[in-house]
Design goal:
Blueprint lengths: L17 E2 L17 E7 L9 E3 L5 E5 L4 E5 L5 E5 L5 E6 L5 E5 L4 E5 L5 E5 L9 E6 L6 E5 L4 E5 L5 E6 L11 E7 L4 E6 L4 E6 L4 E5 L12 E6 L5 E5 L4 E5 L5 E5 L12 E6 L4 E6 L4 E7 L9 E2 L1 E5 L3 E2 L7 E6 L14 E2 L2 E2 L5 E3 L8 E6 L1 H5 L6 E11 L2 E12 L17 E6 L3 E6 L13 E7 L2 E6 L9 E6 L3 E6 L11 E7 L2 E6 L9 E6 L3 E6 L11 E7 L2 E6 L9 E6 L3 E6 L12 E5 L5 E4 L5 E5 L9 E4 L4 E3 L1 E4 L1 E4 L4 E2 L3 E3 L5 E5 L4 E2 L3 E3 L3 E3 L5 E2 L3 E2 L5 H21 L12 E3 L4 E4 L8 E7 L2 E3 L4 E5 L4 E8 L3 E3 L4 E5 L6 E5 L3 E3 L4 E3 L1 E4 L3 E3 L4 E3 ...
Parallel strand pairs: 26-35, 28-35, 52-55, 52-79, 53-56, 53-80, 54-57, 54-81, 55-58, 56-59, 57-60, 58-61, 59-62, 60-63, 61-64, 65-68, 66-69, 67-70, 68-71, 69-72, 70-73, 71-74, 72-75, 73-76, 74-77, 75-78, 76-79, 77-80, 78-81
Antiparallel strand pairs: 1-22, 2-25, 3-4, 4-5, 5-6, 7-8, 8-9, 9-10, 11-12, 12-13, 13-14, 15-16, 16-17, 17-18, 19-20, 20-21, 21-22, 23-24, 24-25, 27-29, 29-33, 30-31, 30-34, 32-33, 34-35, 36-37, 38-39, 40-41, 42-43, 44-45, 46-47, 48-49, 50-51
């Protein structure tokens, strides 16, 4: 790997997006504060699609650019120091404390360590293909171990600095400690933890340095703390975790438990925006570098209290002679410096230095290279400057100084050489088996790899056909498999193949043995027992096929008291079922195999034979009883009106959701009754129907006639016998309603709810109570009269603790057009209006609750009741709706 130095160029762009969380998650340990974030600049030059970022101890930034096969190196000031090229497809990069640069190459499936001067010195693993996709690298600063994310293998592999595999952890899956395409990792030396981005499980997993799983956070999603294809991960000095949420175009900041702290950036093309953010790193100046792959740039943000070294003006420098010969230490090294935009006369005397070596003579201003730009010529002591280099090879000379109160800096690459007669070049860290150190004038000592395929000996008895490849001696793995499952086949690097007898499970080929295990290199087992515990089979064993079970016809006992007598049939013991029916409809008759017949009392429907009861039901003690119920009556009339009327009239297109019960009734055209129609009249026309009406249930009378039945649709039956169950239930419900009305009328009003007359003006609103709720239990509200003008509203306010509310209206109840009686916190079935006078509900008005009236009831067109309607003489106009909600207080 060779290094090239170039002048730096950058553009500082304004604009950034930082989203702060609206609330922090609670917990025993407080989350750290979100970072203060300042967008600094974008680096665009030289990138195709940057992917991974690393920072060395000096603050130099290394960025992989796989599409161009290079790693771009920038100084803290932003200058491009070098472009490390011809790298295949570099997908990952890391730098250790000694300045070694590790590069993962997805083309060759390898990770190679380069010395600071660009020579390949170590390759991790044994040859190409060791890694399927080395997607990210990290260095344990304390131990110097190298952690490699192999995405396609779903593993993290750990190597020593010398290149030996120490361990691996992970494996495919979604359980704790497993991965589905891990893509990135970061090491927190302070906490002793490794954070791994488990991309297709949409989470971050945390391990200790030994690979033991500790915790995880994250899930698929696009909200705070959830990820959509997470990519890179970084940790700042406060322990906050930065995750590149690539598809969402942003970086999420979280604590170690996954509690969301902040967003950095958002999706877009402008400076500070991110399209597919990938790798990240934080430098010693507390600056966050984010590789935005689809923006083809590196974005730079300052975190909290940060320093920004990019205050140095770039300079263009040249150094002569090049190469610099170490053997000739008498001649000075000459530097030429151009500082665009500044008069060279403003250079501060004595401020110019090269690699820290102060210029030996005053500067001379001229135009050395004839490019029309003035430069300053300075000299440096050769011996002092040579002392700043490690040895022969490519080196960097950085010249800095102060001009007009501003620092400037520029660098260039030079060649250091001792090439000459009698010079013995050193191989350094290169493999002596596949490399030669030669002196190439004027370059100097150079490592030349032997030709690929040249024979070599890697000293490992576990490899064969060793040859040189890319400067490394490598061989194919020796196959030590002796195809005997009872030996463990290993290879000792000194001895070669080693076969050790084991006690592993095996298969001796006989179906009549079980528990086969190895011993002394041989597989054997113990005889199998073919007894299947079934008295209905004869059991034998065939070595080829195993156990054979032949059916017999022996007498047996199936252990089931619900069958008998039992015999073997088809390999099973069985008998005929026993009958347990006791003839009582109020018991469920079953059979328990352990104790025999069991008769369990039920609460099923039944017939107690008593004509005075309806809806008979078993009482749970084995006896059938009848009961009196109100039924599902949406409209019910009884003789309380002074006029003695007990009729119901429905206008056309009226809708009643429930049963209708009256002495006689008239039902208008195209009405809908979602229940039964029951009239107890015994003569005359009990029910008169109009065309187009739909009745979902039965039509029943006490013997009276039904007119125009042929013009309507009836979903049930028509019964005019006077003895139908529905008729008895209707009469029982009428009596029950009368009794219950008397009981509720006698109750005292609840303290504080004797309200007097309620008379609301047009559009007026009133709540009962005006402040608070009706309270718990059963409540009685007394009202002299209830009058609501047009578009006014009365609301009863309760809670789930309110059993039911009875509103006693001692006079009339009248609702004007579009008026409302509503409930809040109370369902309609918990409200009953007990009305002593007549009821008039005008057009479009609505009531939530059951109306139980003593006088005449008039419901006008389009009005509606969410409850039931009980009264003596009931008129329901066209298009009105009665929607049954049975009052629970019955």
């Amino acid at each position: 790997m060779s290094g090239r130095r170039s002048r730096s160029m950058w553009i500082a762009l304004a604009g950034f997006v930082v989203h702060m969380p609206t609330a922090g998650a609670g917990g025993a340990v407080a989350s750290p504060e979100p970072p203060a974030v300042a967008f600094l600049r974008s680096y665009r030059a030289a990138f195709h699609a940057p992917s991974r970022v690393a920072v060395d101890a000096a603050g130099n930034v290394y960025v992989t650019d796989p599409g161009r096969g290079q790693v771009v190196v920038r100084a803290p000031s932003g200058r491009i120091l070098s472009r490390l090229g011809d790298l295949g497809r570099p997908t990952s990069v890391a730098v250790d404390g000694a300045g070694r640069v590790y590069v993962g190459d997805s083309d060759s499936g390898s990770v190679t360590a380069f010395s600071p001067d660009g020579h390949a010195i170590v390759r991790l693993g044994k040859g190409d293909g060791e890694f399927r996709l080395p997607n990210d690298l990290a260095i344990d600063g304390a131990g110097g171990n190298i952690f490699v994310v192999d995405s396609a293998a779903h593993l993290v592999k750990v190597y020593s600095r010398a290149g030996a595999l120490l361990q691996s952890f992970g494996g495919y899956g979604s359980a704790d400690g497993q991965f589905n395409f891990p893509v990135s990792l970061a090491i927190d030396a302070t906490a002793g933890q490794v954070l791994v981005v488990d991309q297709l499980n949409y989470r971050i997993e945390i391990f200790d340095l030994d690979g033991t799983f500790q915790s995880a956070f994250g899930a698929l999603g696009n909200g705070p703390g959830a990820f959509n294809m997470p990519h890179g991960v970084a940790i700042d000095r406060k322990g906050r975790v930065y995750v590149a949420d690539s598809v969402e175009g942003r970086v999420q900041v979280l604590d170690r438990s996954g509690t969301f702290l902040a967003y950095i950036g958002d999706f877009g093309e402008a400076a500070g925006q991110l399209r597919i953010p990938m790798g990240m790193a934080i430098d010693p100046s507390n600056r966050l570098f984010i590789a935005a792959a689809n923006n083809a740039r590196l974005e730079v943000f300052g975190l909290d209290a940060f320093a920004d070294p990019e205050t140095v003006s770039p300079a263009v420098v040249h150094v002569e002679p090049n190469p610099i010969e170490q053997a000739n230490q008498r001649a000075a090294v000459i530097g030429y410096i151009e500082v665009p935009g500044y008069p060279l006369g403003q250079i501060v005397p004595g401020s110019i230095a090269a690699n820290g070596v102060t210029a030996a003579t005053p500067g001379v201003i001229g135009d050395h290279d004839g490019n029309g730009v003035p430069d300053v010529r300075v000299e440096f002591d050769r011996a002092s400057l040579l002392a700043t280099f490690a040895g022969d090879g490519v080196a960097t000379v950085t010249i800095s100084g102060t001009i007009g109160g501003t620092q400037f800096e520029g660098s260039t690459a030079v060649q250091i050489t001792t090439c000459g007669a009698g010079v013995l070049c050193s191989l350094g860290d290169a493999d002596p088996r596949c490399n030669e150190a030669v002196c190439v004038p004027p370059i100097g000592c150079t490592i030349v790899p032997k030709a690929n395929g040249a024979s070599c000996e890697d000293g490992d008895a576990c490899t064969i056909d060793d040859v040189c490849s890319g400067g490394f001696c490598e061989g194919a793995a020796l196959n030590c498999d002796d195809r005997n499952v009872c030996t463990d086949d290993t290879c000792d690097p000194q001895l070669g193949c080693v076969q050790v007898n084991n006690t592993a499970p095996c298969d001796d080929g006989s179906a009549c043995t079980i528990g086969d295990t190895c011993g002394d290199g041989v597989c054997s087992g113990t005889p199998v027992s073919c007894d299947d515990g079934n008295v209905c089979t004869d059991d034998t064993c065939d070595p080829a096929g195993g156990c054979v079970h032949s059916d017999n016809a022996a007498a047996c006992d199936d252990g089931n008291l619900c069958t008998g007598p039992d015999v073997c049939v088809g390999g099973m013991c069985s008998g005929a079922p026993r009958t347990c029916d006791d003839g009582n409809v109020c018991t469920d008759d079953t059979c328990n195999p352990a104790i025999g017949c069991v008769h369990t009392n039920n609460t099923s429907a039944c017939d107690d034979g008593e004509p005075g009861t309806a809806r008979d039901i078993c009482d749970g003690a084995g006896v059938c009883h009848g009961q009196v119920v109100t039924g599902n009556y949406a409209i019910l009339s009884w003789p309380l009106d002074a006029r003695g009327a007990q009729s119901v009239t429905l206008g056309g297109h009226a809708v009643v959701r429930g049963d209708v019960c009256a002495e006689s009734m008239r039902i208008g055209s195209f009405s809908e009754i979602e229940g039964n129609v029951v009239a107890w009249a015994s003569d005359g026309r009990a029910v008169v129907l109009r065309s187009g009406t739909v009745i979902a249930g039965d039509v029943v009378t006490g013997g009276g006639g039904v007119a125009r039945i042929d013009q309507v649709t009836v979903g049930g039956q028509v019964d005019q016998s006077g003895v139908a169950v529905e008729l008895s239930e209707c009469i029982a419900a009428r009596n029950r309603a009368s009794s219950r009305r008397a009981e509720l009328a006698a109750r005292p009003s609840t303290a504080g709810f004797a309200l007097g007359g309620i008379d609301l003006r047009r559009d007026e609103r009133r709540r009962i109570p005006s402040n608070g709720t009706l309270g718990a239990g059963q409540l009685v509200v007394d009202v002299d009269e209830l009058r609501l003008a047009s578009s006014s509203a009365l609301t009863l306010v309760g809670t789930s603790a309110t059993d039911f509310v009875v509103v006693r209206v001692h006079g009339k109840m009248m609702l004007g057009m579009a008026a409302r009686v509503a409930t809040e916190g109370l369902p309609p079935e918990r409200v009953l209006f007990l009305i002593d006078g007549p009821v008039m509900i005008y057009r479009d008005a609505r009531v939530s609750g059951t109306l139980l009236a003593a006088g005449h009831v008039q419901i006008n067109a389009n009005a509606g009741i969410a409850g039931a309607l009980f009264g003596s003489d009931i008129d329901v106009a066209a298009s009105a709706t009665i929607d049954l909600h049975s009052f629970i207080g019955w």
